[in-house]
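Q: Please design a sequence for this.
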């Protein structure tokens, strides 16, 4: 194998490993977003429905601000077994590629070149420890208009983006414009 091919393969493998490290770190990144929804239900009925929904999802009310119509829920986010296994498998493939490149590039290192594969489960361990964290959901509920003849409500939710998607699926809410 020629030197240019080998050096470009080493470069691409190192680049892949850098991407892998950033992907593993991003798996535990906070992805909190704020979205506004409208509902045809009056405030009181929607508030009760939201409280039931979040209680069923193992959230607990931590603060209620009647002055600003804000309710804060808190719960523990469970790590995903699938994602932990997926990250370990990615780490195994990445370190296996590195090991193969090391064996090809430096045959004298062939004895310990596959040792980095043993570190692959650390990716799953890192994810599992960092992903299990308290998650907050802040709800602000108000009348959509000052006109008392309409019963529309405006709901602003600050939560993890996956929680926002679940909320949209579970309740009859429309994105506010």
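A: Design:
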């Amino acid at each position: 194998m020629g030197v240019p091919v080998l050096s470009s393969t080493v470069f691409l493998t190192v680049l892949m490993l850098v991407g892998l490290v950033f992907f593993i770190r991003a798996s535990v990144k906070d992805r909190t977003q704020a979205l506004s929804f409208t509902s045809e239900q009056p405030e009181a009925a929607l508030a009760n429905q939201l409280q039931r929904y979040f209680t069923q999802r193992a959230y607990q009310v931590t603060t209620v601000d009647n002055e600003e119509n804000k309710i804060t829920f808190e719960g523990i986010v469970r790590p995903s077994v699938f994602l932990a296994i997926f990250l370990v498998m990615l780490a195994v493939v990445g370190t296996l590629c590195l090991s193969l490149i090391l064996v090809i590039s430096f045959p004298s290192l062939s004895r310990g070149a596959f040792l980095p594969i043993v570190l692959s489960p650390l990716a799953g361990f890192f994810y599992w420890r960092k992903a299990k964290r308290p998650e907050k959901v802040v709800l602000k509920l108000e009348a959509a208009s000052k006109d008392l003849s309409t019963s529309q409500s405006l709901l602003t939710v600050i939560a993890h983006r996956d929680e926002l998607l679940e909320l949209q699926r579970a309740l009859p809410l429309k994105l506010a414009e």
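Q: Thanks. Anything notable?
A: The two ends are 60 Å apart (CA to CA). The mean pLDDT is 85.
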